[in-house]
Amino acid sequence: xxxxxxxxxxxxxxxxxxxxxxxxxxxxxxxxxxxxxxxxxxxxxxxxxxxxxxxxxxxxxxxxxxxxxxxxxxxxxxxxxxxxxxxxxxxxxxxxxxxxxxxxxxxxxxxxxxxxxxxxxxxxxxxxxxxxxxxxxxxxxxxxxxxxxxxxxxxxxxxxxxxxxxxxxxxxxxxxxxxxxxxxxxxxxxxxxxxxxxxxxxxxxxxxxxxxxxxxxxxxxxxxxxxxxxxxxxxxxxxxxxxxxxxxxxxxxxxxxxxxxxxxxxxxxxxxxxxxxxxxxxxxxxxxxxxxxxxxxxxxxxxxxxxxxxxxxxxxxxxxxxxxxxxxxx
Length: 330
Prior knowledge:
CATH topology of the largest domain: D-Maltodextrin-Binding Protein, domain 2
Largest sheet: 10 strands, mixed
CATH class of the largest domain: Alpha Beta
Mean pLDDT: 85
CATH superfamily of the largest domain: Periplasmic binding protein-like II
Structural class: alpha/beta
CATH architecture of the largest domain: 3-Layer(aba) Sandwich
Number of strands: 14
Number of helices: 9
Radius of gyration: 24 Å
Helix content: 40-55%
C-alpha cells in the first residue's frame, strides 16, 4: 500500500524541484526526504524522481502519483471540513463568487435563502472562476457562482472530485464607445469594424478573447489601458481613452459613453453554479442553487439577463433574517 505521507513528500519535491527545498518546506532533513522517496520507489517498483545538477525531474510514474496525491489531498481536506462542521453548533455553507455575478444575482437570492434557512452560518468569498473551482474541489467552498467564457464548462473534465455545472444565464458582451464616437448611433457592430480602435480592457479573459479574434480577423489588437474592473474601464471609455468590450451585467456606461450590441456570433459569458457531485443530499447547497436559478429566471423574464445555456447543464468531468450570520471577505 502506498503511504500517504510519502505522497505528500513527493508532492513537495515536485512543487519545489529540489529535495533540499522540499525538506525545508516540510520541516524535514534532506536525508529524510530522500528516504521517503526511496521507500516510495521500493513500494511502487518504479523510479519516481530523477536528480540532476539542474534539479529534480519526475518520471511518468512520479507524475501520475503527484496527480493522485493532489486528488487525495483535496478529498481529505473536504472530509476534514465536513467533520469540523459536525461539531459546529450551526451548519455552515460557504459560497465563492466572482464580483459582477455576485452583485447581479446574490442579493435577492440570499435574502430568500436567509429567510428560509436562518440556522445556516453563511460565508461568501470573492474569487474568479479558476480559483473558485479549486476552492470547491478542495472543500474550501461548498458551491461557486462562476462563468465560462466561450469555452467548455469551467469545471473541466476527468478530474476528481466530479463537479456539476448548473446553468443560470447567458451574459452577452457589448461594445462600449465614447458618446461622440462615429459608431455611437449604430444598433450593432461587427468587431472587425473596430480594428483600428484602441481598446480599454476590463478583464484578462476579455483580452484573451479579443486577441484571438484579432488574430483570426488579421488585425493587431491595440491596447490603450488594462484593468480588472469593468466599471473603471467604462469610465476610461467615457473619457475618450478607447473602446471596450463589457458583459451585459456589468454595463454602466454613464453619460459619456454608450453601449452597442456586437453582431453575431456575439461573444458571451455563461454564468452557472458549480458544486461537488455527491450521492448524499446537500440540502443547503441545493436550496441556494435553487434560489440562484429562480433569480436568474426572474431577471430573464424581466428582460435583465439572457436565458440559461441549457446545453451546458450537467457534469463538468421561516425565522427572521436577523438570526442568520453572513460573513463576506476577499
